[in-house]
Amino acid sequence: MNGLTLAVMAAACLIAQVTAQLIPGAPIWLAWAGQIAMPLCAFLVGRGFERTRNRVDFLIRLHMASVMTAALQTPLHIDVNPFPALVQIALLVTFLFWHDRRRRLIGLGAYVLWQAAWFALLNAVLPFHAVPALYDHRHLVAAFFGLVPMWDYRACFIVLGVLLWRFRRSPAGIAVVMTAFSLLWLAMMNTRFGLGVLYLPYRIGVADPVGMSATAMSPVIVSPTETAWSIALQYLGFDPFAMGSPPFGPQSPWMMIFALPLMLACDRRRGFGEPRILRSAL
User: Fold this and answer.
1) What pTM was estimated for this model as a whole?
2) Mean pLDDT within 44-71
3) Which parts pass through the membrane (predicted)?
4) Domain definitions of the chain by residue range
5) Helix-helix angle 155-166:83-97, to 10 degrees
């Protein structure tokens, strides 16, 4: 299987995922097939980074695709947009690819500061939900400024893409990374383990889910989604409102592991036009 075939399969899975979100009562297998899309896209970005001749142009085109797709999300009311996360993967891979250690550390440090500053701004100083007009264009803001997505494909998928690039020449490494990621995601979203992690601050006494009101002897329920811990989990990609969902429901990630055999079956060929390129190189 060449790169073009894998890219077409990833695009088909993305279309299935968008269809499952837009059409009420769509077959559940469309949502399952959509789970394969992002791991394949993350794998293909690292592969494309290795093969492109102009990495700056590669990043610019990814960013443009991210912004244009985000501009369509507001009127369509969908959250599926892999490009912002793919931009983050390509940007981190660019920094890690630099051989100069000092330059690499400066690039990674600037990236962390940029993301941390915007995260603080959009969560503490000027949160999206406080300004309705800003909230309606949240996808566009995050895409335009190159931020780690706060919805849909978030930090864990970015880490997955970087690790798949790191072990790109090792089928065993790709298999371990993809298997570990799939099992972690399944455990966090579809077992009681994830709920236990979500309520960890309450279990160790850092937060109290049930307190006593000062004016009335009635319990005060504290939402787990309001703690810094739950915000951190959401930033990683673990939505507290979806934790504990059925293992084979529409939001179950169990199909992601089936991206692995497709990755391992992909060879080093680009696809259409590869023989001509090879002849010209020779």
Assistant:
1) 0.84
2) 88
3) 30-46, 58-76, 82-98, 105-128, 140-165, 172-189
4) 3-169
5) 40
